[in-house]
Design goal:
274 residues; alpha+beta; Serine Threonine Protein Phosphatase 5, Tetratricopeptide repeat; 4-stranded antiparallel sheet; two-stranded antiparallel ribbon; 6 strands; 7% strand; globular
């Protein structure tokens, strides 16, 4: 069974006409899944992209440039992390993304519209909860529950956690479900449970850089710096270009009085973020 937001849902949430929503999907500006009868269905991340597309079209940016900006934006949206707190600006035909600590730019230009993802999630929340209640449990396998949970994370976090747990009940080795549920528990302050899910993910996928990095963060939060450093080093073995892992490792080495190691990681971080 296909979940997600219908064309009518998106039109109501984003103040667009159904024809405009279909046009965005049909022209490929925003990718959308299709149901058995060809009806479009959109994820919450699709809503984020559609709202950005609406602002760019309203600013009379040529469609080929909008397409390029949205492709880059889709690739640069956080992977394995909540969209909570993400803010998207457009300056000309440039889409600029902020997550509270970093700012990155998929394209370049100069214009003025801004929105935060949180307000979109608040509007989508009631609809997402209704959709989650309507899902026939017997029609979902582990991957189906995982995909539903991803869509529910921002607008309906409690339902998302339940869906991740359903996925893991069906497939305890679903590494991505462990990572995402771990992150949600981490954000809620349930550190011991979060650590357990990150370790379970690594038990299935030993080279999962995201799971190793998140484990490092939760170990820091539990005041276990030496173990956190080992986790960051594990993340860097899997992905030597993981800038945040270099930065966190540098900060911990500095805290522990290991200046040469701190400088080595800081230099790597600066090279990756120039």
């Amino acid at each position: 069974m296909l979940t997600g937001y219908t064309v009518r849902d998106v039109a109501q949430l984003l103040d667009l006409s159904p024809a405009q929503v279909r046009s965005f999907a049909r022209t490929g500006l925003v990718p959308a899944a299709r149901g058995p009868k060809g009806a479009y269905r959109f994820s919450f991340q699709d809503l984020v992209l559609l709202r950005a597309a609406r602002g760019l079209v309203g600013a009379r940016i040529p469609r080929p440039r909008i397409r390029r900006a949205l492709e880059h934006l889709r690739d640069s949206l956080p992977s394995g992390r909540s969209l909570s707190g993400i803010q998207i600006d457009a300056e000309g035909d440039q889409v600029v993304v902020h997550d509270g600590t970093r700012r990155w730019s998929p394209e370049s230009g100069q214009m003025h519209f801004r929105f935060e993802v949180d307000d979109l999630a608040a509007k989508a929340g009631p609809l997402a909860r209704q959709r989650a209640r309507e899902v026939p449990a017997e029609e979902f396998d582990a991957e189906g529950w995982y995909e539903l949970a991803c869509d529910l994370e921002m607008p309906a976090p409690e339902e998302a956690r339940r869906a991740y747990r359903r996925a893991l009940a069906l497939d305890p080795r679903h590494a991505d479900a462990h990572v995402n549920l771990g992150r949600m528990l981490h954000e809620a302050g349930e550190l011991a449970l979060a650590e357990g899910h990150y370790r379970s993910a690594l038990g299935v996928e030993p080279d999962d850089a995201t799971a190793a990095f998140n484990l490092g963060v939760v170990l820091e939060d539990r005041d276990r710096p030496e173990e956190a450093l080992l986790a960051y080093e594990r993340a860097l073995l899997a992905d030597p270009d993981h800038a945040d892992a270099h930065f966190n490792a540098a900060r911990l080495h500095e805290r522990l009085g290991r200046r040469p190691e701190a400088l080595r990681h800081l230099q790597s971080y600066r090279k990756l973020t120039r």
